[in-house]
Amino acid sequence: MSEPSAPTSALRPGSAEQVSEILRESSGLRRTLWIRGGGTRLGIANPAPPPDAWLDLRDLRGVFELDAEEGVAHVAAGTSLNLVAAEAHAAGFELPLDPPGPTSTLGGCLAAAAVGPRFPRPRDAVLGLGVALATGEISHCGGRVVKNVTGYDVAKLHVGGFGSLGVIVSAWLRLRPLPERVLVLARKDETLERVLAVSRLSTARAAAFEDGALVLELAGDAAAVEADRERLPDLEEWGDGALEAVRSAQEAPARVRTRVASLPTRIVDASVPLRDAGARILCYPGSGLLLACFDREEGALEATRQSARIGGGPFRVEQAPDDLLENVDVFGDLSEQLPLHRALKDRFDPARILNPGRFVGGL
Amino acid sequence: MSELIAKLRDIVGPAACLSRPEELLVYEADGLTVHSARPGAVVLPSHRDQVVAIVRACREAGVPFVPRGAGTGLSGGAVALEDGIVIECSRMQRILEVSPEDRLAVVQPGVINAELSKAVKHHGLFYAPDPSSQAACTIGGNVAENSGGPHTLKYGTTTDHVLALELVLPDGECVRLGSPTGVPAGLDLVGAVVGGEGTLGIVTEITVRLTPIPPRVETLLAIFPDVVSACRAVGSVIQSGLVPAALEIVDRRTIEAVEASVYAAGLPTDAGAVLIVELDGAPEAVAGQVERVREHARSAGASGVEVARDEAERVRFWRARKGAFGAMGRLAPDLYVHDAVVPRSKLPEVLATVCEIGDRHRLNLCNVFHAGDGNLHPNICFDRRDADELARVMTAGEEILRACIEAGGVISGEHGIGTEKREFMGLVYSDDDLEAMLRLRAAFDPERVCNPGKVFPSTRFCAESNPKARGYDRVPFE
Ligand SMILES: Cc1cc2nc3c(=O)[nH]c(=O)nc-3n(C[C@H](O)[C@H](O)[C@H](O)COP(=O)(O)OP(=O)(O)OC[C@H]3O[C@@H](n4cnc5c(N)ncnc54)[C@H](O)[C@@H]3O)c2cc1C
């Protein structure tokens, strides 16, 4: 769905406490809110009437703590991902999240479970979350330690929850030591079959395949990277730019954009209906994702559904004109799980103020 | 109750429904022997439809039910309070599918953890989560506790390896969550159910990720004059960017117990601590890493570092770690295995406090722990028939948990809360934190019929919450 043009008003809290006040008040007034960070993933939503106000989290900024001894960081949700990554880098770590765009915030990236070529599961970076509940309470789950089964793992509901169950205000993140060696390789005229095999090399951190071209990033122990590199004599060395090109391909403008998750062995077959419908396909074989861009609306959704059926995973519509979405849930066909989604929404957002109508099943 | 039992008999057959007191005895506790309660009956379903029917029958009768695996849990999770029905999943033990190309397996919940790795070994794959109890515990139990093990440091815990679940909800509906691709549609409900301690429903099928067996494994054993220097070595290894598969420390007291037992590994009994390091991966990488670890250990003060020359030696090194439970078990009838996590840099001071607590309460306490992720396991051997000793064990346990929280840690890293630690939840979480967990619970089990009396404190809630300890002290926004 496209971003609404004229938001009624924008609330810009500067602290978690202010978020909490806004939510408590909004729940009481039944004032509906659309929550936003950097705005790079706002389009992934079911069509819904515009909200009473925007809740803009970009003033919740700051890296509160970066503990280089433990390799963990505590960061406010509105902080720019690029800024967190830069601070982590300066301390000898990498932030294991792919920024969806230059303006992305940490909270937005986590709420949308945004993925890129390198890191397929944003949840892996999360040790704990601070979440403002729709009813105003500020709740914390997890913590700063790297292993934790103290109570339920509630954070999993918010990562990828698109702000439907609460507003992420801060996160404890697990950073990774910078790899000893990183090497970006590329080659044209590859087949998806070979790309699949290559993506399973032990140091393959990112693999992307588009239009016959492979971009592969090896990272890790220097000796292991070198050993893998020697297995690929026909690939050329490229700079970081190749990965940047992949990122921009992921965000390239399109009329309709969809995403299909597939089992590794079915990814070749799953790509066929998409291609037949005229899509440009960016494939992340390591994470089993097919990202399809269509310039025409006709057949796009049918091809996506068909592809997902073959691939054995869910699909998602990341962008499409509203009229195309009349009988489609952009989050895929998940009828069986719908009652649980509804029950969670009932408990976490009884007044239906958080992104109402936009999430799974129009919740 | 007798009417319900008759119904349950009809569902699973008389041989799979236990209700005589002598049959129920072994179900009164799990691995945590200090908490016990007798169930009303135990049923052993052999497939999902029976689970559905059992759940419906229990609900109609208004009787709570508790899923159970092998009963090796250490927090009382599989014990039925208030005469509830235990649904033991051990008969659902089939590996339904192995897909080596897609690196996944579909299993029933009663499959024993180690059996899965055995069954897929010829494909060059294994199931990575490896709790020390893996020869006995079930994957269903692992899912409920989000179990870890020595190799969690590199490979992650159970949650990192579960792709999809089939779950019988507490109202008897059966749902499939997640997808074999690991990408959820909508909310990550699989992620929420893993670690749910059997309170969110009964898992009847699990799709797990399989991992390639690393082509090369090296195991090192380093001997240190004291636990502080061993911890220092762990810190410097991790800070150097190395990610060993395991970093385990065994303290002096454990070494003494192990060496005096049949598990003797030939360790010097005057050593202050032993560090076991396992490195695995590409052969080209591992060779160099062994040398780097050796250097880190030496600079941290190790008096000796050995590298296992063959499988026999590797097994001997691990015996120092894995024999600890057995060796401790020899010393007294009961063993209390504690579990808490602290930031790694706090390990030395917390360990000193833990030992002081044990000494002050005149207890036989020793430590083996997953040093790489700050996961402590103080073990106390005792005799629960000795009321005074039991009281000291319980007081010491609470003091240990408080010391860990004080250091910025949490009260469970892998064993869960169960009945054991429910009253301590308020030490870690505020009312609002627990409120969010209760909402999750309520969405799955509004009437709290599935494993009631677990995880949450009995009183609403403790005023002592200490958010600062978790690192959530009020921080100014920029
Ligand atoms: C010697 C020893 C060593 C141990 N080492 C470790 C270790 O290294 N790491 C670790 O993490 N743990 C360890 N444990 C603890 C224990 O083995 C784990 O918690 C294990 O996962 C429990 O599995 P189980 O099959 O015995 O489950 P049970 O003890 O039977 O049950 C545990 C919990 O799971 C729930 N449950 C069981 N089956 C299902 C199902 N099908 N659906 C939903 N819920 C279910 C139960 O209700 C209960 O809450 C150890 C225990 C012992 C005795």
Description:
Chain A has helices spanning 16-29, 81-90, 106-111, 155-158, 192-198, 222-230, 241-251, 267-276, 300-311, 338-348, and strands at residues 10-11, 33-36, 53-56, 63-67, 72-76, 93-94, 126-132, 138-142, 167-174, 176-177, 181-187, 204-210, 213-220, 236-238, 256-262, 280-284, 289-294, 312-319. With 363 residues, chain A is an alpha+beta fold. Chain A has an 8-stranded antiparallel sheet with strand order 14-11-13-12-16-17-15-18, sandwiched between helices. The longest helix of chain A is centred in the N-terminal third of the chain and has 14 residues, at 16-29. Chain B has 5 domains: 2-88, Uridine Diphospho-n-acetylenolpyruvylglucosamine Reductase, domain 2 (2-Layer Sandwich), CATH 3.30.43.10; 95-212, Uridine Diphospho-n-acetylenolpyruvylglucosamine Reductase, domain 3, CATH 3.30.465.10; 216-326, Alpha-Beta Plaits (2-Layer Sandwich), CATH 3.30.70; 332-406, 2-Layer Sandwich (Alpha-Beta Plaits); 430-474, no CATH class. Chain B contains 15 helices and 19 strands. The structure holds flavin-adenine dinucleotide (FAD). Flavin-adenine dinucleotide (FAD) is lined by residues 30-31, 66-74, 77-78, 89, 109, 131-133, 137-138, 140-142, 144-145, 147-149, 197-198, 202-203, 325, 414-415, 451 of chain B.
Average residue-wise pLDDT of chain B: 93
What proportion of the residues of chain A form beta strands (DSSP E)?
Answer: 25-35%
Number of strand elements of chain B: 19
Largest interface: pair, residues per side: A-B, 94 and 93 residues
Q: Spell out the helices and strands of chain A N to C.
A: EHEEEEHEHEEHEEEHEEHEHEHEEHEH
CATH class of the largest domain in chain B: Alpha Beta
Which architecture of the largest domain in chain A per CATH?
Answer: 2-Layer Sandwich
Distance between the termini of chain B: 61 Å
Report the major sheet of chain A.
Answer: 8 strands, antiparallel
Helix content of chain B: 25-40%
CATH topology of the largest domain in chain A, which one?
Uridine Diphospho-n-acetylenolpyruvylglucosamine Reductase, domain 3
Q: Shape of chain B from CA axes?
A: globular
- Overall mean pLDDT of chain A stands at 94
Helix fraction bin of chain A? 25-40%
Low-confidence stretches of chain B: 461-478
Question: Structural class of the secondary structure composition of chain A?
Answer: alpha+beta
Going by CATH, the architecture of the largest domain in chain B would be 2-Layer Sandwich
Beta-strand residue fraction of chain B: 15-25%
For the biggest sheet of chain B, the summary is: 8 strands, antiparallel
Q: Would you tell me which CATH topology of the largest domain in chain B applies?
A: Uridine Diphospho-n-acetylenolpyruvylglucosamine Reductase, domain 3
